[in-house]
Amino acid sequence: MTAPQVQLLEVDESSEGQRVDNYLTKVLKGVPKTHIYRLVRAGEVRVNKKRVQADSRLTLGDVVRIPPVRVSQPSPELSEARIPPAEFPVLFEDDGFLAINKPAGIAVHGGSGVNFGVIEQLRSARPEARMLELVHRLDRDTSGILLIAKKRSVLKNLQDQFRNRTIDKRYLTLVKGTWPERRKVVDLELFKYLLPNGERRVKVVSQPIDGSQRSVSLVRVLAQGSIPNGGDAVTLLEVKIKTGRTHQIRVHLSYFDTPIAGDDKYGDFVWNKALQQIGFKRMYLHAYHLTLQHPVNSQVIEITANVPDELRPWSLNWAK
What does pTM read for this prediction? Predict the structure, then answer.
């Protein structure tokens, strides 16, 4: 077997605008994402001979250096033909992109121990589609609006809107305790790290350090009350993110001792167990509203995904 070699790959139109981690996942099929992130953090992956972050964006003509990595042969069980096709509730669709209502519990793409996700299943269900690419991501346990591009130009335009913070993206979330109505802006420095088992986590740091990023969320109280039969005070919040950092909302809310109901990474684990016993089975984080400028005709489009049925009993009689 030939030993793996250094690769120097030039970014073409099909990869323009992609994040470095997503690009490497595509190129290094079979390599765990945890290993890919280690390579990036160690500086072994270079773009135009410079170190990069995992969430850096690639531009046309960039030269990506990939260190020697042994890539496993894909198992027949994971071949495209064996990915179960699935359509998801469509909230908007035209020739350029579609918006779907992603259920909780489904990853947006395969990797890190997940054989396939929304995008692979959608491609399997629409074999005639020339292109289907994720514009952005949602956590596996988050439900709500997910944008998928059908054209390269539309993908780039929508990603630019996200990057330039001109897209208005809002979430609904239920948190433990009483959130003060006067606390409308959360502005914290976040730092990503790995647990010993390779799982990614994010924490708040008191001041900027190497690798940390500023994160800003706007928070509005929608309703306050208590969990039925549980007695715990809870607050239903609308959160608008001004920056799209990993686990941003989950970390922001947990930092103030008001963790999201059902959050298995940053939440109150004893409380979560009690919630499960009264029928609450998932994390209450739902991307419910998005406003953007259409990439082709520049019209303003508003998209709404109503609260899923499994969250309705816990929504404090909020109307949406």
Answer: 0.78
